[in-house]
Structures are given as structure tokens and as C-alpha cells.
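Mods, move this if it's the wrong board.
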Amino acid sequence: MLKETYYNQFKGWGTEIPKEAHKVNVMRSRGSFLAPSWELLRDWQADRISWDEYEERFRNEMLSSVEARTAMKDIKKRSKDGDVYLICSCHNKENHC
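Not the wrong board. C-alpha cells:
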């Protein structure tokens, strides 16, 4: 099953991640192909774009990246047999990039 958590929770401040779970870092600062581009992230953080525009641009970034599509296929495969946690550093629980 696919799950998500925040970086601070991964360090023990919230959701406990079982040792046998597969962990996928989706932070731009860690170079993840599943993170938004710096430009998109900065536009969102500076309120230059709406959440709807963020989602559309993010989706386009993911679909145009061979590496991101490959990572998503791997996550889908792994989630059939066990828990997969997507770990990011976003603190906004309503609109979670």
C-alpha cells in the first residue's frame, strides 16, 4: 500500500515507518526525480501560482521525465507486495507538494 509521511516524521516525530517498508525520498533537495522542479516549487512557495496550476505543472513534469515514470512504475510494483512510504519535507498538510 502506498503511504506518505514528512521528513520530520521519518526522523521519529510522527508516523512510525516499519523497518520492512520500502522508503522513497521525494525531496528536491535530495535530488529525487519524483520531486517538483526548483522553479515549480519556488512558484508555489511564493504564491505565484494556484494549487490547481501547481498540480497541472507537476503532473506534466512527472509525465515528461523518463526517470520519474520509471520510479513510479517501481513504486507501483513494490506497493503490491508491501508498504511504500513517500517521504518529503512539506509541512502543509492541505496542499502537499
